[in-house]
Amino acid sequence: MTIYQRSAVAEPDSEFVPGQLTHLVVGNRGRLLDDRRTPIVLTGVDVDTGMFELEVAAFEDRGARWRLPFEDISKFQFARDAARVADTGFVAAVARFDRPLRVDCDHDARRATLACIADLAGEASLFLRPRWSGALALGTRHGDTHLFGAAEAWLNHRGVADMDRAFAQIFVSNPNSGELVKGHAIVAAELGLCPYVGKIVRSPHLFSGDRSRQHRADHLISRLALMRAIFTIAGIDQLTLYRGLASDARIEPARSGSFVSVTFAREVAEAHFGGGPTTVAAALYRQRIPVDRLLMTYLETPAMNAQYAEAEAILLGEPNNPLF
Predict the structure, then answer these.
(1) What share of the chain is helix, strand, coil (3-state, %, to 5)?
(2) 242 to each of 138, 274, 275, 309, how far by Cα in Å?
(3) Is residue 4 part of a domain?
(4) Do 57 and 76 belong to one domain?
């Protein structure tokens, strides 16, 4: 069974060179160093934020635009005759923005947040019951259209539906694109939910307007309450979830991020575990997870049923659980 699209014949890596800052030229074509060698084309370069934009040129996400840090150019490769440019502030931008940021969790903030989620989950349950049957089709890789409508009605009721759609669309395509997901991760730490360990903010407008800290917090709390309500109505308090990893180098132990992508479907995890021609190491994991760690799933989220059918779930990170 095919889970992900692939090229029938891919050019060997020997025909390409590793991406460098000098490759940051609009129009340059290259490949992501994933197991599919996904083709991309550079569409923008922004020295002010130290980010470049690319367009995905093949497979399920064809046409998607990602904005990534300059230093991530090393995760790509380019044709040997690709255009080059002299440094025009690229190195300085990397030095300015490629810096760590850590936001630890406050116990009092966590206690208050969890109490708020618990109260709101009760309200969400009352809201959902007349709008949804309570049945979950966990054996498929496609969500429930009736649950889509009920979940959207709740998110609209809470005033966070637009934020939810934006977050889901970015996360499904590439959670590292832009800084919307980063902003949520920082706010999650401020709420006491999960520490943030990452890089500093690049955009001065990250927490402005309808992406303010308060609006992000409202979205996270409303979302976590929604997930508790859905699974309470369904009579489920734990789930078996899967994660597959493949790497071109030895897999090193690492802490989980603020948000962790896993799947309900073993076959999807096995597709990641399968890797590609240059895979050196791979791992397949399974774990029972309490539903109170769920932020979003394919069951109620239309964006997780668009270009991919991954039966995806997004979990809040857990510092002492590096795999999940």
Answers:
(1) 40, 20, 40
(2) 13, 14, 16, 15
(3) no
(4) yes
Final residue in a domain of this structure, among 40, 74, 98: 98
- Token pair, residue 67, equals 């904005």
User: Long-range contacts: 120-126, Cβ < 8 Å, 24+?
Assistant: 120/221, 120/222, 120/225, 121/224, 121/225, 121/226, 121/228, 121/229, 121/232, 122/229, 123/225, 124/154, 124/222, 124/225, 124/226, 124/228, 124/229, 125/229, 125/232, 125/233
C-beta atoms surrounding 205 within 10 Å: 9
Give me the domain span that covers residue 75: 13-98
169, part of any domain: yes
pLDDT in tens, 220-278: 999 999 999 999 999 999 999 999 999 888 888 666 799 999 999 999 999 999 998 88
- Note the pLDDT tens digit of each residue in 37-78: 999 999 999 999 999 999 999 999 999 999 999 999 999 999
What are 157-216's pLDDT values in tens digits? 999 999 999 999 999 999 999 999 999 999 999 999 999 999 999 999 999 999 999 999
Domains identified in the chain, total number: 2
The pTM for the full model equals 0.96
As to burial, measured by CB atoms within 10 angstroms (0-12 exposed, 13-18 middle, 19+ buried), residue 27 is exposed
User: Given this model, what pLDDT does residue 255 score?
Assistant: 67
What is the Cα–Cα distance from 155 to 210, expressed in whole angstroms?
Answer: 15
In the three-class reduction of DSSP (H, G, I as helix; E, B as strand; rest coil), residue 36 is classed as coil
Domain identity same for 130 and 250: yes
> Do residue 156 and residue 44 come from a single domain?
no
